[in-house]
Amino acid sequence: MWGSLNRILRLGIKELYSLKADPVMMVLIVYTFTIAVYTVSTGAKFEVENASVAVVDEDRSMLSTRLRDALLKPFFKEPVLIDASEVDAAMDAGRYVFVLEIPPKFEEDAIAGRKPSLQLDIDATAMSQAGNGASYIESIIMQEVQTALPADVQSQPINLVVSAQFNPNLQSTWFTSVMQVINNITMLSVILTGAALIREREHGTIERLLVMPVTPHEIVLSKIWANGLVIVVAAVLSLLIVVKWLLAVPIAGSIGLFVLSAVLYQFSVTALGILIATTSSSMAQFGLIVMPVLIIMNLLSGSTTPMDSMPPWLQYAMQISPSSHFVSLAQAILYRGADITAVWPEMIALVTIGIVFFIAALIRFRGALADAQ
Protein backbone atom coordinates (compact mmCIF):
# COMPACT_ATOMS: atom_id res chain seq x y z
CA MET A 1 0.00 0.00 0.00
CA TRP A 2 2.79 2.41 0.92
CA GLY A 3 4.46 1.67 -2.40
CA SER A 4 1.26 2.57 -4.23
CA LEU A 5 0.90 5.83 -2.29
CA ASN A 6 4.52 6.69 -3.05
CA ARG A 7 3.96 6.13 -6.79
CA ILE A 8 0.80 8.27 -6.67
CA LEU A 9 2.76 11.04 -4.93
CA ARG A 10 5.61 10.94 -7.43
CA LEU A 11 3.28 10.84 -10.44
CA GLY A 12 1.42 13.81 -8.99
CA ILE A 13 4.66 15.76 -8.57
CA LYS A 14 5.48 14.95 -12.19
CA GLU A 15 2.06 16.35 -13.08
CA LEU A 16 2.80 19.58 -11.20
CA TYR A 17 6.07 19.99 -13.12
CA SER A 18 4.20 19.44 -16.39
CA LEU A 19 1.70 22.12 -15.40
CA LYS A 20 4.51 24.49 -14.43
CA ALA A 21 6.06 24.01 -17.87
CA ASP A 22 2.79 24.99 -19.58
CA PRO A 23 2.70 28.83 -19.54
CA VAL A 24 -0.73 29.00 -21.17
CA MET A 25 -2.33 26.99 -18.39
CA MET A 26 -0.52 28.97 -15.71
CA VAL A 27 -1.72 32.27 -17.18
CA LEU A 28 -5.25 30.86 -17.46
CA ILE A 29 -5.29 29.85 -13.77
CA VAL A 30 -4.00 33.23 -12.58
CA TYR A 31 -6.37 35.18 -14.84
CA THR A 32 -9.41 33.08 -13.93
CA PHE A 33 -9.04 33.54 -10.18
CA THR A 34 -8.01 37.21 -10.23
CA ILE A 35 -9.01 39.46 -13.12
CA ALA A 36 -12.00 37.35 -14.16
CA VAL A 37 -13.44 37.30 -10.65
CA TYR A 38 -12.95 41.04 -10.14
CA THR A 39 -14.28 42.20 -13.51
CA VAL A 40 -17.37 39.99 -13.44
CA SER A 41 -18.16 40.92 -9.83
CA THR A 42 -17.89 44.67 -10.40
CA GLY A 43 -19.25 44.74 -13.94
CA ALA A 44 -22.29 42.45 -13.84
CA LYS A 45 -24.63 44.04 -11.32
CA PHE A 46 -28.27 43.19 -10.65
CA GLU A 47 -29.19 46.26 -8.67
CA VAL A 48 -30.21 49.54 -10.30
CA GLU A 49 -27.36 51.95 -10.92
CA ASN A 50 -27.28 55.08 -13.10
CA ALA A 51 -30.62 54.30 -14.73
CA SER A 52 -31.80 57.05 -17.07
CA VAL A 53 -35.12 58.58 -16.04
CA ALA A 54 -37.36 61.38 -17.37
CA VAL A 55 -40.31 63.10 -15.70
CA VAL A 56 -43.43 64.54 -17.33
CA ASP A 57 -44.57 67.02 -14.69
CA GLU A 58 -48.00 68.40 -15.62
CA ASP A 59 -48.75 69.38 -12.03
CA ARG A 60 -45.75 71.62 -11.23
CA SER A 61 -46.57 71.49 -7.53
CA MET A 62 -44.50 71.12 -4.39
CA LEU A 63 -45.32 67.41 -4.22
CA SER A 64 -44.43 66.69 -7.87
CA THR A 65 -41.14 68.56 -7.45
CA ARG A 66 -40.43 66.54 -4.32
CA LEU A 67 -41.01 63.29 -6.23
CA ARG A 68 -38.67 64.38 -9.00
CA ASP A 69 -35.94 65.40 -6.57
CA ALA A 70 -36.23 62.07 -4.74
CA LEU A 71 -34.87 60.15 -7.76
CA LEU A 72 -31.27 60.40 -6.61
CA LYS A 73 -27.87 59.06 -7.61
CA PRO A 74 -26.38 56.48 -7.73
CA PHE A 75 -29.61 54.62 -8.47
CA PHE A 76 -30.77 57.07 -11.13
CA LYS A 77 -29.19 59.70 -13.31
CA GLU A 78 -30.34 63.30 -12.97
CA PRO A 79 -34.08 63.30 -13.93
CA VAL A 80 -34.84 65.10 -17.20
CA LEU A 81 -38.03 67.14 -17.58
CA ILE A 82 -39.81 66.43 -20.87
CA ASP A 83 -43.24 67.11 -22.36
CA ALA A 84 -45.90 64.43 -22.74
CA SER A 85 -45.62 64.72 -26.53
CA GLU A 86 -41.95 63.62 -26.35
CA VAL A 87 -42.51 60.37 -24.42
CA ASP A 88 -43.12 57.98 -27.34
CA ALA A 89 -40.19 59.24 -29.39
CA ALA A 90 -37.86 59.18 -26.37
CA MET A 91 -38.84 55.61 -25.46
CA ASP A 92 -38.55 54.44 -29.08
CA ALA A 93 -35.04 55.91 -29.26
CA GLY A 94 -34.06 54.23 -25.98
CA ARG A 95 -32.98 57.49 -24.33
CA TYR A 96 -34.68 56.66 -21.02
CA VAL A 97 -35.34 53.45 -19.13
CA PHE A 98 -38.09 55.10 -17.03
CA VAL A 99 -40.51 57.93 -17.71
CA LEU A 100 -42.63 59.05 -14.76
CA GLU A 101 -45.81 60.92 -15.79
CA ILE A 102 -47.39 63.13 -13.11
CA PRO A 103 -50.92 64.27 -14.06
CA PRO A 104 -52.38 67.77 -13.52
CA LYS A 105 -53.78 68.55 -10.05
CA PHE A 106 -51.90 65.59 -8.59
CA GLU A 107 -51.11 67.29 -5.28
CA GLU A 108 -54.63 68.73 -4.98
CA ASP A 109 -56.26 65.34 -5.58
CA ALA A 110 -53.85 63.61 -3.18
CA ILE A 111 -54.62 66.07 -0.36
CA ALA A 112 -58.36 65.70 -1.04
CA GLY A 113 -58.02 61.92 -0.69
CA ARG A 114 -59.11 61.18 -4.27
CA LYS A 115 -56.17 58.75 -4.79
CA PRO A 116 -54.78 60.05 -8.10
CA SER A 117 -52.76 57.77 -10.39
CA LEU A 118 -49.23 58.12 -11.68
CA GLN A 119 -48.01 56.46 -14.86
CA LEU A 120 -44.57 54.89 -15.10
CA ASP A 121 -43.37 53.97 -18.61
CA ILE A 122 -40.58 51.39 -18.62
CA ASP A 123 -38.23 50.23 -21.36
CA ALA A 124 -38.21 46.53 -20.46
CA THR A 125 -35.43 45.66 -22.89
CA ALA A 126 -33.18 46.64 -19.96
CA MET A 127 -34.71 43.70 -18.12
CA SER A 128 -32.76 43.73 -14.85
CA GLN A 129 -33.05 47.48 -14.34
CA ALA A 130 -36.68 47.48 -15.47
CA GLY A 131 -37.85 45.05 -12.82
CA ASN A 132 -35.76 46.31 -9.94
CA GLY A 133 -36.03 49.98 -10.90
CA ALA A 134 -39.83 49.87 -10.95
CA SER A 135 -39.79 48.61 -7.36
CA TYR A 136 -37.31 51.33 -6.39
CA ILE A 137 -39.45 54.10 -7.90
CA GLU A 138 -42.65 52.73 -6.37
CA SER A 139 -41.01 52.63 -2.94
CA ILE A 140 -39.65 56.17 -3.36
CA ILE A 141 -43.03 57.55 -4.42
CA MET A 142 -44.90 55.88 -1.56
CA GLN A 143 -42.36 57.12 0.98
CA GLU A 144 -42.35 60.70 -0.31
CA VAL A 145 -46.14 60.92 -0.60
CA GLN A 146 -46.64 59.48 2.87
CA THR A 147 -44.15 61.97 4.31
CA ALA A 148 -45.55 65.00 2.46
CA LEU A 149 -49.30 64.47 2.98
CA PRO A 150 -51.10 65.45 6.18
CA ALA A 151 -51.64 62.63 8.65
CA ASP A 152 -55.42 62.68 8.21
CA VAL A 153 -55.23 61.72 4.51
CA GLN A 154 -52.70 58.93 4.90
CA SER A 155 -54.36 55.54 4.64
CA GLN A 156 -51.49 53.18 5.33
CA PRO A 157 -52.88 50.58 7.79
CA ILE A 158 -49.49 49.01 8.56
CA ASN A 159 -45.82 49.89 8.50
CA LEU A 160 -43.81 47.09 6.90
CA VAL A 161 -40.19 46.81 8.07
CA VAL A 162 -37.97 44.59 5.90
CA SER A 163 -34.80 43.03 7.32
CA ALA A 164 -32.40 41.49 4.76
CA GLN A 165 -30.17 38.79 6.22
CA PHE A 166 -26.60 37.94 5.06
CA ASN A 167 -26.54 40.84 2.53
CA PRO A 168 -28.34 43.78 4.18
CA ASN A 169 -27.57 46.29 1.41
CA LEU A 170 -28.54 43.81 -1.33
CA GLN A 171 -25.24 44.31 -3.15
CA SER A 172 -24.92 41.96 -6.10
CA THR A 173 -21.11 42.03 -5.77
CA TRP A 174 -21.37 40.02 -2.56
CA PHE A 175 -23.19 37.27 -4.45
CA THR A 176 -21.49 37.45 -7.85
CA SER A 177 -17.90 37.37 -6.60
CA VAL A 178 -18.25 34.19 -4.54
CA MET A 179 -20.29 32.43 -7.23
CA GLN A 180 -17.70 33.41 -9.83
CA VAL A 181 -15.01 31.68 -7.77
CA ILE A 182 -17.23 28.58 -7.53
CA ASN A 183 -17.90 28.52 -11.28
CA ASN A 184 -14.20 28.96 -12.02
CA ILE A 185 -13.36 26.01 -9.76
CA THR A 186 -15.72 23.85 -11.80
CA MET A 187 -14.40 25.05 -15.14
CA LEU A 188 -10.69 24.73 -14.41
CA SER A 189 -11.02 21.42 -12.55
CA VAL A 190 -12.57 19.75 -15.57
CA ILE A 191 -10.28 21.43 -18.08
CA LEU A 192 -6.97 20.88 -16.25
CA THR A 193 -7.42 17.19 -15.51
CA GLY A 194 -8.87 16.42 -18.94
CA ALA A 195 -6.15 18.40 -20.69
CA ALA A 196 -3.48 16.63 -18.64
CA LEU A 197 -4.65 13.24 -19.87
CA ILE A 198 -5.00 14.42 -23.47
CA ARG A 199 -1.50 15.97 -23.25
CA GLU A 200 -0.06 12.59 -22.18
CA ARG A 201 -1.62 10.98 -25.23
CA GLU A 202 -0.59 13.69 -27.71
CA HIS A 203 3.00 13.86 -26.42
CA GLY A 204 3.36 10.08 -26.45
CA THR A 205 4.14 9.81 -22.74
CA ILE A 206 1.19 7.49 -22.20
CA GLU A 207 3.30 4.72 -23.76
CA ARG A 208 6.04 5.39 -21.22
CA LEU A 209 3.55 5.03 -18.40
CA LEU A 210 2.53 1.62 -19.79
CA VAL A 211 6.02 0.20 -19.30
CA MET A 212 6.33 1.57 -15.76
CA PRO A 213 5.23 -0.42 -12.69
CA VAL A 214 2.13 1.72 -12.17
CA THR A 215 -1.53 0.83 -12.31
CA PRO A 216 -4.33 2.80 -14.03
CA HIS A 217 -5.88 3.86 -10.73
CA GLU A 218 -2.54 5.27 -9.57
CA ILE A 219 -2.28 7.37 -12.73
CA VAL A 220 -5.84 8.65 -12.34
CA LEU A 221 -5.43 9.45 -8.63
CA SER A 222 -2.15 11.28 -9.25
CA LYS A 223 -3.79 13.56 -11.80
CA ILE A 224 -6.74 14.16 -9.46
CA TRP A 225 -4.68 15.20 -6.44
CA ALA A 226 -2.12 17.27 -8.35
CA ASN A 227 -4.58 19.32 -10.40
CA GLY A 228 -7.04 19.47 -7.51
CA LEU A 229 -4.34 20.88 -5.22
CA VAL A 230 -3.57 23.68 -7.68
CA ILE A 231 -7.25 24.63 -8.03
CA VAL A 232 -7.98 24.57 -4.29
CA VAL A 233 -4.95 26.74 -3.47
CA ALA A 234 -5.82 29.20 -6.25
CA ALA A 235 -9.48 29.33 -5.16
CA VAL A 236 -8.63 29.99 -1.50
CA LEU A 237 -6.17 32.74 -2.45
CA SER A 238 -8.80 34.27 -4.73
CA LEU A 239 -11.38 34.12 -1.96
CA LEU A 240 -9.09 35.78 0.57
CA ILE A 241 -7.30 38.34 -1.64
CA VAL A 242 -9.76 39.25 -4.41
CA VAL A 243 -13.13 38.64 -2.75
CA LYS A 244 -12.51 39.42 0.91
CA TRP A 245 -9.75 42.04 0.69
CA LEU A 246 -10.09 43.75 -2.71
CA LEU A 247 -13.89 43.62 -3.06
CA ALA A 248 -14.53 43.86 0.72
CA VAL A 249 -17.03 40.99 0.71
CA PRO A 250 -17.43 39.53 4.24
CA ILE A 251 -16.90 35.80 4.68
CA ALA A 252 -19.30 34.58 7.36
CA GLY A 253 -18.22 30.96 7.77
CA SER A 254 -15.12 28.81 8.23
CA ILE A 255 -12.50 28.90 5.48
CA GLY A 256 -11.26 25.50 6.67
CA LEU A 257 -14.69 23.93 6.19
CA PHE A 258 -14.89 25.49 2.74
CA VAL A 259 -11.49 24.01 1.87
CA LEU A 260 -12.67 20.57 3.01
CA SER A 261 -15.77 20.91 0.85
CA ALA A 262 -13.64 22.07 -2.10
CA VAL A 263 -11.38 19.01 -1.73
CA LEU A 264 -14.39 16.69 -1.82
CA TYR A 265 -15.71 18.58 -4.83
CA GLN A 266 -12.33 18.25 -6.55
CA PHE A 267 -12.49 14.49 -6.22
CA SER A 268 -15.78 14.33 -8.11
CA VAL A 269 -15.32 17.05 -10.71
CA THR A 270 -11.73 16.13 -11.66
CA ALA A 271 -12.85 12.53 -12.08
CA LEU A 272 -15.52 13.90 -14.43
CA GLY A 273 -12.79 15.70 -16.40
CA ILE A 274 -10.82 12.46 -16.79
CA LEU A 275 -13.99 10.62 -17.80
CA ILE A 276 -14.64 13.16 -20.57
CA ALA A 277 -10.99 13.01 -21.67
CA THR A 278 -11.14 9.23 -22.06
CA THR A 279 -13.99 9.66 -24.56
CA SER A 280 -12.02 12.22 -26.60
CA SER A 281 -9.38 11.51 -29.21
CA SER A 282 -7.89 15.02 -29.33
CA MET A 283 -7.76 18.30 -27.42
CA ALA A 284 -10.17 19.89 -29.89
CA GLN A 285 -12.74 17.14 -29.42
CA PHE A 286 -12.30 17.38 -25.65
CA GLY A 287 -13.00 21.11 -25.78
CA LEU A 288 -16.17 20.63 -27.83
CA ILE A 289 -17.50 18.06 -25.35
CA VAL A 290 -16.52 20.08 -22.28
CA MET A 291 -18.21 23.33 -23.33
CA PRO A 292 -21.87 22.19 -23.11
CA VAL A 293 -21.13 20.17 -19.97
CA LEU A 294 -19.67 23.21 -18.19
CA ILE A 295 -22.47 25.49 -19.37
CA ILE A 296 -25.11 23.16 -17.96
CA MET A 297 -23.23 22.59 -14.71
CA ASN A 298 -22.73 26.32 -14.09
CA LEU A 299 -26.09 27.69 -15.23
CA LEU A 300 -28.20 25.02 -13.51
CA SER A 301 -26.17 24.59 -10.33
CA GLY A 302 -27.99 27.31 -8.39
CA SER A 303 -25.18 29.84 -8.74
CA THR A 304 -27.06 31.87 -11.36
CA THR A 305 -30.70 31.20 -10.54
CA PRO A 306 -32.13 29.48 -7.43
CA MET A 307 -32.79 25.77 -7.74
CA ASP A 308 -36.35 26.31 -6.49
CA SER A 309 -37.18 28.37 -9.59
CA MET A 310 -36.42 25.44 -11.90
CA PRO A 311 -38.97 22.78 -12.98
CA PRO A 312 -39.18 19.92 -10.47
CA TRP A 313 -37.87 17.32 -12.93
CA LEU A 314 -34.81 19.49 -13.62
CA GLN A 315 -34.16 19.93 -9.91
CA TYR A 316 -34.10 16.14 -9.51
CA ALA A 317 -31.92 15.71 -12.61
CA MET A 318 -29.33 18.21 -11.35
CA GLN A 319 -28.82 16.17 -8.18
CA ILE A 320 -26.44 13.95 -10.17
CA SER A 321 -24.26 16.99 -10.85
CA PRO A 322 -21.63 17.69 -8.17
CA SER A 323 -21.79 21.43 -8.92
CA SER A 324 -25.31 21.82 -7.49
CA HIS A 325 -24.22 20.26 -4.18
CA PHE A 326 -21.03 22.32 -4.00
CA VAL A 327 -22.88 25.58 -4.68
CA SER A 328 -25.30 24.74 -1.87
CA LEU A 329 -22.33 23.98 0.41
CA ALA A 330 -20.47 27.16 -0.48
CA GLN A 331 -23.49 29.39 -0.02
CA ALA A 332 -24.30 27.85 3.35
CA ILE A 333 -20.72 28.13 4.63
CA LEU A 334 -19.56 31.46 3.16
CA TYR A 335 -22.85 33.39 3.35
CA ARG A 336 -24.72 31.95 6.31
CA GLY A 337 -21.82 30.70 8.44
CA ALA A 338 -23.10 27.10 8.54
CA ASP A 339 -21.08 24.45 10.37
CA ILE A 340 -20.52 20.83 9.43
CA THR A 341 -23.74 19.67 11.14
CA ALA A 342 -25.73 21.65 8.55
CA VAL A 343 -23.80 20.64 5.42
CA TRP A 344 -22.79 17.02 5.97
CA PRO A 345 -25.56 15.62 3.70
CA GLU A 346 -24.18 17.63 0.77
CA MET A 347 -20.67 16.38 1.58
CA ILE A 348 -21.86 12.78 1.49
CA ALA A 349 -23.54 13.46 -1.84
CA LEU A 350 -20.26 14.86 -3.24
CA VAL A 351 -18.32 11.78 -2.10
CA THR A 352 -20.93 9.42 -3.57
CA ILE A 353 -21.00 11.20 -6.93
CA GLY A 354 -17.20 11.33 -6.92
CA ILE A 355 -16.92 7.58 -6.39
CA VAL A 356 -19.30 6.93 -9.29
CA PHE A 357 -17.37 9.27 -11.62
CA PHE A 358 -14.03 7.84 -10.48
CA ILE A 359 -15.08 4.24 -11.15
CA ALA A 360 -16.47 5.20 -14.58
CA ALA A 361 -13.30 7.16 -15.42
CA LEU A 362 -11.08 4.27 -14.25
CA ILE A 363 -12.97 1.77 -16.41
CA ARG A 364 -12.74 4.04 -19.45
CA PHE A 365 -9.04 4.76 -18.78
CA ARG A 366 -8.21 1.06 -18.51
CA GLY A 367 -9.95 0.53 -21.83
CA ALA A 368 -7.92 3.35 -23.38
CA LEU A 369 -4.68 1.84 -22.08
CA ALA A 370 -5.65 -1.58 -23.45
CA ASP A 371 -6.31 -0.01 -26.87
CA ALA A 372 -2.92 1.75 -26.74
CA GLN A 373 -1.19 -1.59 -26.18
Question: How would you characterize this protein structure?
Answer:
This protein is mainly α and 373 residues long. It contains 15 helices and four strands. A four-stranded mixed beta sheet has the order 2-1-3-4, covered by helices on one side. Helix 3 (35-43) packs antiparallel against helix 8 and helix 11 packs parallel to helix 15 (340-372). The model has no long low-confidence stretch (mean pLDDT 84).
Task: Describe the protein's topology.
Elements: H1 2-20, H2 23-33, H3 35-43, E1 53-57, H4 62-69, E2 80-81, H5 87-93, E3 98-102, H6 106-111, E4 119-122, H7 127-148, H8 172-203, H9 205-210, H10 216-246, H11 255-278, H12 283-299, H13 312-317, H14 322-335, H15 340-372
Parallel strand pairs: 1-2, 1-3
Antiparallel strand pairs: 3-4
Helix pairs in contact: 1-10, 2-3, 2-8, 3-8, 8-10, 8-11, 8-12, 8-14, 10-11, 11-14, 11-15, 14-15
